[in-house]
Structure formats: C-alpha cells, structure tokens
C-alpha cells in the first residue's frame, strides 16, 4: 500500500473540519417558515416586507435590491424592514427611516432632487457628449469635394 505525503493528511483533515463546521451551522440555522403554514396576518406582513425590500438598494451589491441580495447587510436590512412593519410602521415610515440612515441612495428609484440630479441626468449628459463627439469626428474627417481619397 502506497503511503501518502504527510501534508495530504493535514489537507484532508482541514477539508473535513470545514465541512463539519458548515454542516453544523446549517443545522443550527432556524428554518424559514413555509408560506402555506403562516397565519394570514403573517403572510400579508411577509408580502409587504418583500414588496418594500424590492424598493431598497443593497448597499453592498449596489446593482440589486435587498430582496434579491444574499449579502449579510441586505439580510440585516430585510430583517429590519420586517421588524418595523411588524411594530406597525407604514411603508413610508420604513422608507423614511432607511433614507434617514443611509441617504437617498438606499432607494432603488431615488427621487429627483438637488442631491440626485446627477444620478438621473448623468446618463443623458454622457449620451449627449458621446453623440456630440461622434458627430464632431465624422464632420472633421469628412473628405472635401474634389479631394481624391
């Protein structure tokens, strides 16, 4: 029987330990309640929390809503949204709380105001500049009449 190098035994032990730790953590994680087993009030609360979470931007991912993101901060924000709704806050109160804490950037569709005008107008300005540069280049390199090119 062939003897394996000593480092392989350590590698095997490390992989086995990490697998056992992740398995134990998964076993300790509380299971999400199934939607069909929730009381009607809880189901409506979850629906509101999900709808509101789809309006808030993940501050880590920045291209996803907190409803779509699996980042730890997004998970915390989803829990915060649900807790506030469970305490009786309106959707607007939750939005206002998030904006107060994180700024307009947390809204997936920020309002048009002095602070966000560049968010809304920036892409249009860049498009106009790009088209202007293209037209300028085309006019600059246009062959003149009688030019043998």
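^ Assign residues to that structure.
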């Amino acid at each position: 029987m062939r003897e394996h190098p000593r480092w392989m035994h350590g590698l095997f032990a490390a992989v086995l330990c990490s697998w056992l730790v992740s398995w134990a953590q998964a076993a300790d994680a509380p299971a999400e309640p199934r939607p069909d087993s929730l009381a009607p009030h809880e189901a409506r609360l979850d629906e509101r929390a999900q709808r509101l979470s789809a309006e808030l931007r993940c501050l880590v991912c920045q291209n996803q809503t907190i409803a779509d993101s699996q980042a730890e901060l997004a998970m915390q924000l989803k829990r915060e949204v649900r807790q506030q709704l469970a305490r009786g806050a309106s959707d607007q109160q939750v939005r206002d709380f998030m904006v107060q804490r994180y700024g307009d950037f947390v809204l997936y569709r920020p309002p048009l105001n002095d602070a966000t005008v560049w968010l809304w107008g920036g892409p249009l300005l860049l498009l106009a500049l790009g088209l202007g540069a293209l037209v300028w280049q085309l006019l600059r390199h246009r062959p003149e009449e009688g030019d043998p090119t």
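Helices lie at 6-28, 40-53, 72-86, 91-102, 117-140.
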